[in-house]
Write a structure and sequence with these properties.
Keywords: Hydrolase, Metal-binding, Metalloprotease, Protease, Zinc. InterPro entries: Mito/Outer_Membr_Metalloprot, Peptidase_M48, TPR-like_helical_dom_sf. The structure is a single chain. It is built from 24 helices and 4 strands. Strand 3 and strand 4 form a beta hairpin. The protein has a domain of 229 residues. It is mainly α and 462 residues long. The N terminus is likely disordered. The radius of gyration is 23 Å and the shape is flat.
Length: 462
């Protein structure tokens, strides 16, 4: 790959590649954009990354993928995909943390960057093709989907990198330290190794692309971590309640047909009968979520009542309660519930988003605007907040503000050409000299970024 072949992938190009793949990936039907799931995974990832032996060059963003196989993969730029099947199969939060920590280990040690520039000729040809597709997308022409089948290709890239035994062991050890320092039980890594080994044996000869095929397990790796666990004082962290609610939701989300959904609901019903405490509440929440998805509002309401029994409550349960009230046409009641939930969970993105939806559906866009502006300061990397703010601006007749805000949305999602178009539209809608000057600066800045990204990709493609 020309001058890049003798050195690691520069962080700037790595981020460009990751952003561009995610821009397409967010349109993939298997991408899970649910705020409860996204915030849970990314919070866990960044908590672990804060304790990495070597700080990652990129901010870590963890997202869910609708796939029942036990798998995970890392993209360039600090993006990590976690299959729904991995969370559903996990029995503890520490098991999930062990996989995310391992993937962060690969990111922090720059295994992905090195692998993309130092592997075989066939891998180089594939990555050059990816760069060519991204160039077409940055030029505003061509179909990115033709060059990249989003997460299917991302997982294929992960497989082709074929990390060495040394790299796998480095990622294990870095992940182990992250878990220990971040407050997760390192024994979760051992039990996840066992779960992955069993899954690999069950799926042997069936194809499938499970995690063990992309990150081959070995006796040496397992023994190394078992020895480290033996030298570490016992840890018994309680874990977060959200693990159980997110796991229950994903059990339903990953069901691709009516039969799979019936099986998922039956499993949740068994859990609701056998479990106690928060696990029982989460099972009823999953049943309520499944009913809500099928628009069976009566059953959803009944299951939610069961989820709340014995004082059980969570932001996930509260958010679904607001969504249910909105679906029943009780917008005033939904807003009251949303206000109460926001007072209790002011750091929850799902609650913030459902509060905005309630404000908008009651015609209170003037109240939604300042609330959204505050949330954007709180969570500057959440594109959906900008999209909702643009909608409220538009309904209030603030057309220039609406387009500037949509430009920020497209910028965050990696669609830079579309962001430029939005800013150009905004400029044509105002005669205010100062606003036009601000927009000119923004347009020029984005165009310079586009030019720089194209130059980096041209180098990579060659």
């Amino acid at each position: 790959m020309g001058s890049a072949s003798s050195a690691e992938l520069p962080p700037s190009l790595e981020r460009t590649l990751g952003d561009a793949i995610m821009e397409q990936g967010r349109r993939d039907p298997d991408y899970i954009g649910d705020p409860d799931i996204s915030q849970y995974l990314t919070t866990m990832g960044r908590n672990l990354a804060a304790h990495a032996p070597v700080s990652p060059d990129q901010p870590i963003t963890v997202f869910g993928v609708r796939d029942p196989q036990i798998n995970a993969f890392a993209l360039p730029g600090g993006y990590i995909g976690i299959n729904s099947g991995l969370l559903v199969s996990a029995q503890t939060e520490s098991q999930v943390a062990s996989v995310i920590a391992h993937e962060i280990g690969h990111v922090a040690q720059r295994h992905i960057a090195r692998g993309m520039t130092q592997k075989s000729q066939s891998s180089g040809v594939m990555m050059a093709a990816v760069a060519a597709a991204l160039l077409a997308a940055l030029s505003g022409s061509g179909d990115l989907a033709m060059g990249i089948a989003a997460f299917g290709q991302a997982a294929a890239v992960d497989r082709q990198l074929g990390f060495s035994r040394q790299a796998e062991q480095e990622a294990d050890r870095a992940g182990f330290e992250m878990m220990r320092k971040a407050g997760y039980d390192p024994r979760g890594m051992v039990s996840m190794f066992n779960l992955l080994s069993n899954s690999a044996r069950l799926n042997e000869g069936k194809g499938g692309g499970d995690y063990a095929s992309t990150h081959p397990l070995s006796i040496q790796r397992m023994s190394d971590i078992e020895n480290r666990v033996g030298e570490t004082p016992p840890a018994n962290p309680e874990g977060s309640d959200s693990f159980w609610f997110v796991r229950a939701k994903l059990r339903i989300v990953q069901a691709r047909n009516s039969q799979a959904q019936r099986t998922a609901v039956e499993k949740l019903q068994l859990d609701a009968q056998r479990a106690t405490g928060i696990e029982q509440s989460a099972a009823w929440y999953g049943i309520a979520f499944a009913a809500f998805q099928k628009k069976d509002l009566v059953r959803a309401e009944q299951a939610l009542r069961n989820a709340r029994k014995d004082g059980g409550n969570s932001p996930e349960v509260a958010g679904l309660g607001v969504s249910l009230a909105l679906a029943q046409g009780d917008t005033a009641g939904a807003l009251a519930l949303a206000e109460k939930a926001w007072q209790r969970w002011p750091d929850n993105q799902g609650i913030a988003l459902i509060r905005v939806e309630s404000l908008q559906k009651t015609g209170r866009d003037a109240d939604a605007v300042p609330f959204l502006q505050q949330r954007i300061k709180q969570w500057p990397e959440v594109p959906r907040l900008h999209q909702l703010l643009a909608q409220s601006h538009e309904r209030l007749g603030q057309k220039v503000a609406a387009r500037r805000t949509m430009a920020a949305y497209y910028d965050l999602t990696g669609a830079l050409p579309t962001a430029v178009e939005q800013l150009q539209q905004a400029r044509s809608m105002t005669t205010d000299f100062y606003v036009q000057s601000e927009l000119d600066v923004q347009i020029r800045t984005l165009k310079e970024r586009l030019k720089a990204d194209r130059a980096l990709l041209e180098r990579f493609k060659s």
